[in-house]
Design brief:
Order of helices and strands of chain A: HEEEHEHEHEHEEEEHHHEHEHEHEHEHEH
Catalytic activity (chains A, B): D-ribitol 5-phosphate + CTP + H(+) = CDP-L-ribitol + diphosphate; D-ribose 5-phosphate + CTP + H(+) = CDP-D-ribose + diphosphate; D-ribulose 5-phosphate + CTP + H(+) = CDP-D-ribulose + diphosphate
Helix content of chain A: 25-40%
Strand order of the largest sheet of chain A: 5-4-1-6-10-7-11
Strand content of chain A: 15-25%
CATH superfamily of the largest domain in chain A: Spore Coat Polysaccharide Biosynthesis Protein SpsA, Chain A
GO molecular function (chains A, B): D-ribitol-5-phosphate cytidylyltransferase activity
Distance between the termini of chain A: 46 Å
Organism (chains A, B): Physeter macrocephalus
CATH architecture of the largest domain in chain A: Alpha-Beta Complex
Largest interface: A-B, 58 and 58 residues
EC number (chains A, B): 2.7.7.40
Radius of gyration of chain A: 26 Å
Number of helices of chain A: 14
CATH topology of the largest domain in chain A: Spore Coat Polysaccharide Biosynthesis Protein SpsA, Chain A
Largest sheet of chain A: 7 strands, mixed
CATH class of the largest domain in chain A: Alpha Beta
Structural class of chain A: alpha/beta
Oligomer: homodimer
Pfam families (chains A, B): IspD, ISPD_C
Shape of chain A: elongated
Chain lengths: 428, 428
C-alpha cells in the first residue's frame, strides 16, 4: 500500500514537466482529506480512490472519422496522455476506461504500447451516462469475477481532457469526501441564452451567475452508484451532468471547485492543434548539450549554453558523466557536439543510452548531432559519407521515436554565426 | 457604390484561402435580403452596412501582459486578421474599432502597416458595452465632424474572432434586416450550472435547451442605438449581451443563427496556438514549383510535383511564365529549382516579383531555393560561397516577411531520396 498523505510519496513527477501541487501544499490538502474521514487516523489513512473515464464517444464534432480520444498528438493517441496524467497520481488505485466494443482491441494496443498500468476496460454504453454507469458497475463489489475492489471515492474524468493536474484531482477528491460530491467549474466564455421554439431569443442568462461545469468530478462511490441505479432511462439517454444525478437522486449538493484553464475539453480540430502546441512547449523547455571532455569543445559548449539560455528555462551542459541522470529527469532534447572525433562516437553512445531508457515511448526525443570539421585537412567526399552515415542512423532510431538530425560544420574556423545556426535548428 | 447582391461583386476572395459562401448560394441569400427591405428593388438595393469592433479588452484571462487582440500570430497582431476578414466583404462600408487611448497609436500603426482600409478609430469605454456604444455614437448622424454616415444595419463583432466568414455575416445581416436583431449561436460544450452562495451546486441547466451566444451579431442601427441610449448604467457596467439590450429596451426578439465552430473567441493562450496552426494550415495548402525551361528540370519538377501532391491540395509547376498570375492568386509557398544556372538567377527573379507584389504584407512567404550541382565538376569551395550568398539574400528578404531557405544538392546523380528531402523541408 502506498503512503498517505501523497505529498511524501516518492519521486515527485512521473509525467514529464506537468505542473502539480507539491510538498507542503499537497500535504496540507491531504491531511484535510484524512481528517474528514470518520474514524481515520490523521495523516495515514489513504482513502481508496478509483477513476472512471468514459471514452465511447464518436467525435462527430471534430469533423474527422477518428473519435477524438484516439486522434494522434505527436503520433500518440490523445487518451494515452489522459491516462498518463491519471496514472502518475500515486493514490489513484484503479482506472476504468469505457470504450466501444469496436475500439476495445485498439485500446488494448494503446495500453500495451505506452505501458499504461492499472487500467481496466469495460464496454461503453450508447450515451455518456451509460458508459459511466458501466464503469461504476465494474468497480462495485457485487460484480462477479471482478479483480477491482469498490473504492471509497470515485473520480469521473473525460478521456479528452489530457492536462488534468494532481492538485485539482486532490481538491475534488477531498471535497467529495466531505460533501459527497464535487466538481471542477470554470467561468463562462460566452453568454448563455435560451432560444424560443421559433429560433429567436427567449432570454439570456446573467453570465456572472453561471459557470461551466468541467471535469474532473469526484463522488463518494456509494452516492453516485446509488444515483445511477435509481435514475430514469430519460436521464441515462439525455442527461449530461453527473452532479445533477447526485442532487436529484441523493440530495447531495456538490461542492464546486474553481479549476484552471488547462481543464478544457478537446472538442474541435483546433483543440488538437492547441494540445499539440502545449505538449511541444512543455517538452522543449529543457535541453542538454553533450560535449566530449576536450578543451575547445568546452568552449563551444559553454557559448552554445549561453545562447540557448536566452530562449530556454533549463539548459545543461555535460561531458557525458551525468547523462544517465539527465535522461532519468526526462530531458527530451539533446545537442551532441563532436569536435575531435569523426565517427559520431558520442552521438552513438547517447543514442544507446536513450534506447535503453525507454524515454521515447511517451514523447519524441530530439537529438542534433553536430560535427565540427577542419575544412582544409579533411577531404570533402569523406565527410559527405559521414553525413550519409548519420542519415542511416536517423532512419534506424526514428523507429523508436528518436528524431536524429546531423549538422556538419565544415569551415576553417567556426564562428558565432554557426552557433546561431545550431540555435535556430533547435527551434525549428 | 458597389454592386448588390454581393454574389456578383468582382474578385471572389481578397483574403487568402478563407472559405466563404460563393456564387449561387450567396446570390440566393442576398436576394432574400433585398426582398425583405420595404420598397427595395429586388437585386439592386444594397443596405448600408457598417461594423463595430470593441477592442478595448485587457486580455487578463490570457495570462500575458499584451491584450489578446494585439498578440502576434505569425508576427501579425490578431486584430489585423479580424479586420482583414471584415474588409474583404465588399458590402461592409465602414469598420469602427474601439480601442483604449493607450493603444490608439499602436492601432494606427497596425492599420498603416497592414494597409487596412475603411477603418475608423474611437476611444473604448471601461466595459465592452460602453465601447460598443462609443462605436455606435460615431456612426450616428447626430455626431458633428464625423466622416461616417449612419448605416441601416450594424454588425457587432469581436476583435478576437479572426475566422469569421462572409456567409455568416450575410446571414446575420439578412436576419437583422427582417427581425431587427440577429446573432450567431453555437451548441454548449459544457453543461452550465448555477452555484449557490456557499459555492455548492444549486441547479444545472439542460444543455439541449441552451446555446452559447457568439459573434457576429447584427442589428437595425436604429434598434440597437435606441437600446444603448435607453439602457441603465448597470447594464453598461455589468451586461455582456447586446441581444439582451435589444430585447429589454426595444422588445426585439433576435433571430438566432447557427454558426460554425470557426466563430470561437481567442480567449486563452491555447487559443493563440490553435489560431496560429489554423492559419499555417490554410496558407500552406498551395505550393508552386518554379523551374527554368530545360529538359531535365521538367523531369525533376514533375516528380517533385507528384510527391507534393500526396500531401497538398494545390501544387503547380511553372517555368515562370504564369508566375505573376500565381502570385496574384495568393500562393505563399515556392520551391525554386535551379539546375543549369549556378547563380540563383531564377530565385532572384522570383524574389523580385514577390517584393513588388506586396504579397508578404499579410502572411510570410516561404521560398526554398534548390540548386542541383555536379559533384565531380564543380569545386566545393566555390559552391560553399554560393550557399553563403543565399544566406545573405535570406537576411535581406526576411525584412519583407519572405523566408528564404537554400538547399544545395551536391551529388553526382540526384535520386528520389533527395526529392523526398525537399518534400520534408517543405513540411518542416
Amino acid at each position: 500500500m502506498e503512503s498517505w498523505p501523497p505529498g511524501g510519496s516518492g519521486p515527485a513527477e512521473a509525467g514529464p514537466r506537468l505542473r502539480g501541487l507539491r510538498g507542503a501544499d499537497l500535504a496540507a490538502s491531504a491531511s484535510l482529506l484524512s481528517g474528514a474521514g470518520a474514524g481515520a487516523e490523521a495523516g495515514c489513512s489513504a482513502p481508496a480512490v478509483a477513476a472512471v473515464l468514459p471514452a465511447g464517444g464518436s467525435g462527430e464534432r471534430m469533423g474527422v472519422p477518428t473519435p477524438k480520444q484516439f486522434c494522434p498528438i505527436l503520433e500518440r493517441p490523445l487518451i494515452s496522455y489522459t491516462l498518463q496524467a491519471l496514472e502518475r497520481v500515486s493514490w489513484i488505485k484503479d482506472i476504468v476506461v469505457a470504450v466501444t466494443g469496436e475500439n476495445m482491441e485498439a485500446m488494448k494496443c494503446i495500453i500495451q504500447r505506452y505501458q499504461h498500468k492499472g487500467i481496466s476496460l469495460v464496454e461503453s454504453g450508447v450515451t455518456r451516462h451509460r458508459s459511466i454507469f458501466n464503469g461504476l458497475k465494474a468497480l462495485a463489489e457485487d460484480q462477479p469475477n471482478c479483480r477491482l475492489s469498490k473504492p471509497e471515492v470515485v473520480i469521473i474524468h473525460d478521456a479528452v481532457r489530457p492536462f488534468v493536474e494532481e492538485d485539482v484531482l486532490l481538491k475534488v477528491v477531498t471535497a467529495a469526501k466531505e460533501h459527497g460530491a464535487a466538481g471542477a467549474i470554470r467561468p463562462l466564455v460566452s453568454t448563455v441564452i435560451s432560444p424560443s421554439v421559433d429560433g429567436c431569443l427567449d432570454h439570456s442568462l446573467e453570465r456572472a451567475r453561471h459557470r461551466a461545469s468541467e471535469m474532473p468530478q469526484a463522488f463518494l462511490f456509494d452516492v453516485i452508484y446509488e444515483a445511477y441505479q435509481q435514475c430514469s432511462d430519460y436521464d441515462l439517454e439525455f442527461g449530461t451532468e453527473c452532479l445533477h444525478l447526485a442532487l436529484k437522486y441523493c440530495h447531495i449538493k456538490a461542492k464546486l471547485i474553481e479549476g484552471s484553464p488547462d481543464l478544457w475539453k478537446v472538442t474541435y480540430k483546433r483543440d488538437l492543434y492547441a494540445a499539440e502546441s502545449i505538449i511541444k512547449e512543455r517538452i522543449s523547455q529543457q535541453i542538454c548539450v553533450v560535449m566530449d571532455a576536450k578543451e575547445d569543445e568546452e568552449h563551444v559548449g559553454h557559448r552554445l549554453e549561453e545562447m540557448l539560455k536566452n530562449e530556454l528555462n533549463h539548459v545543461k551542459v555535460t561531458s557525458g558523466r551525468d547523462l544517465q541522470q539527465i535522461i532519468l529527469e526526462q530531458c527530451y532534447n539533446f545537442v551532441c557536439v563532436n569536435v575531435m572525433t569523426s565517427d559520431f562516437e558520442e552521438t552513438q553512445k547517447l543514442l544507446n543510452m536513450l534506447e535503453e531508457s525507454n524515454l521515447s515511448i511517451l514523447y519524441p526525443v530530439v537529438v542534433i548531432s553536430v560535427q565540427f570539421l577542419d575544412y582544409e585537412s579533411v577531404p570533402f567526399g569523406q565527410k559527405m559519407e559521414n553525413l550519409m552515415q548519420i542519415r542511416e542512423f536517423a532512419k534506424e532510431v526514428k523507429k523508436t521515436n528518436i528524431l536524429l538530425y546531423g549538422l556538419l560544420v565544415y569551415y576553417p574556423q567556426w564562428e558565432t554565426g554557426l552557433l546561431k545556426a545550431i540555435v535556430d535548428l533547435v527551434f525549428s
